[in-house]
Design brief:
Nucleotidyltransferase, domain 5, alpha/beta, binds 5'-O-[(R)-(carboxyoxy)(hydroxy)phosphoryl]adenosine, 2 domains, binds zinc ion, five-stranded mixed β-sheet, 10 helices
């Protein structure tokens, strides 16, 4: 009798800890699929949609069509790279929202069909939760230190800018957020004004390395509490350039690196000021960044410098887990799988959400 009880416990442990999760991310313009065992990422395939570059931003209709084209080959590649068979997958997790509805529909519909065909549970994930939980992604033979709860997370992407107090994997309080543009939009829009291409964040980041961050100053908003505003910065930048271009039509070309370094510094200073305030007020010393903008090397340096100064332990996701990717949806999926939190076939995607206890 005892033997059978022990066997059941071992089998149950094995089922949960060594389960393979297939994860799908399709909220914006990246089609991604990943396979995880526990929180260990075995594969993380991302198909970027080049089609949007010529328009300087994501065209939703084109994004959903590209997801349709990409999803099967991307999933196929993820399963092959993980070196497993389809029938070894225990559950499928997918981004239910927020994001572009047409894009989300592709990932959601695929996940429903896969779950039905393979007779496995499906697990819905909130995209912003996914970005935060990317901090827990592990790679085989390369253990990554993870934050302890509660920790602060500055989640910065093309759609979000939030300071979160992360109490547990799916229990996050938003201390502050942007009241207009996200930090990623501030990068993308100012890059567009300079004619630098899309997405602007990585381009500004690269050019900023050669420039003087104190060359130019733009107006900074004074928003109370932990909230942010970035739309004023964009407007101030636009008017500044309009005046300079009247005097010298080559102004942007001649000052590109300094302009990038200065605008990046302004965005980073704004982000860090509120994060430091939140850390002081809450007394929390485990501080992380997440989301696409967390790939910014200037922001990473600023976080490390603040960490040194204020005695924080800082956490930065690996580059491949910071911009949109399915591995982060797989980490979140595995954590919900452990809890037995499964979705149903009548679920539909949502474009917007008030974050997020996993809904
Ligand atoms: O997380 P993400 O891939 O998608 C959203 O959920 O929005 O973030 C995309 C955003 C874009 O605005 C992009 O310009 C920005 O992240 N980004 C960066 C960098 N890499 C990506 N911003 C600044 N510096 C970077 N190196
Ligand atoms: Zn994202």
């Amino acid at each position: 009798m005892l033997f059978f009880v022990l066997l059941r416990i071992i089998l149950c442990y094995e089922r949960i800890h060594f389960s393979y999760i297939l994860a799908i991310e399709s909220s914006c313009d990246d089609t991604s699929a990943a396979v995880l065992r526990g929180t260990t990422v075995l594969s993380n395939v991302i198909a970027n949609q080049e089609v949007h570059r010529q328009y300087g931003g994501v065209i939703p209709e084109l994004a959903s069509r590209a997801h349709q084209q990409n999803i099967i080959p991307v999933v196929d590649a993820a399963i092959k790279q993980a070196n497993i068979q389809k029938n070894q997958i225990s559950a499928i997790s997918f981004t239910r929202g927020p994001g572009l509805l047409g894009s989300l529909l592709v990932g959601t519909s695929f996940s429903k069909a896969f779950a039905l065909a393979m007779d496995i549970p499906m697990i819905e994930i909130n995209h912003t939760n996914g970005h935060v939980l990317a901090l827990f992604a592990q790679e085989p033979d390369d253990p990554t230190p993870v934050p302890q709860f509660p920790f602060l997370c500055l989640t910065v992407s093309g759609g979000h800018t939030q300071i979160m107090k992360v109490n547990d994997y799916f229990d996050m309080d938003i201390l502050g957020k942007t009241i207009d543009d996200a930090a990623g939009e501030a990068f993308d829009k100012t890059a567009k004004i300079m004619g630098l291409g899309y997405p602007g964040g990585p381009i500004i980041n690269k050019l900023a390395k050669e420039g003087n961050p104190d060359a130019f100053q733009f107006s900074k908003p004074h928003i109370p509490g932990y909230d942010y505003s970035f739309s004023g910065l964009k407007t101030s930048f636009l008017y500044f350039l309009r005046d300079k271009l009247k005097e010298n039509e080559n102004f942007i070309e001649e000052n590109k690196a300094d302009l990038c370094a200065s605008i990046q510094k302004d965005i980073i200073d704004t982000l860090m000021k509120k994060l430091i305030k939140a850390a002081k007020d809450t007394g929390i010393r485990q501080v992380a960044i997440a989301g696409g903008v967390s790939a910014n090397t200037g922001l990473q340096d600023a976080l490390r410098a603040a960490g040194k100064k204020y005695h924080w332990e800082v956490f930065i996701p690996k580059f491949k887990f910071s911009t949109d990717n399915a591995a982060m949806i797989g980490v979140a999926g595995y954590l919900k799988y452990q809890r037995g939190e499964f979705g149903t076939q009548d679920m539909t995607p949502y474009a917007r959400t008030v974050i997020s206890t996993g809904a």
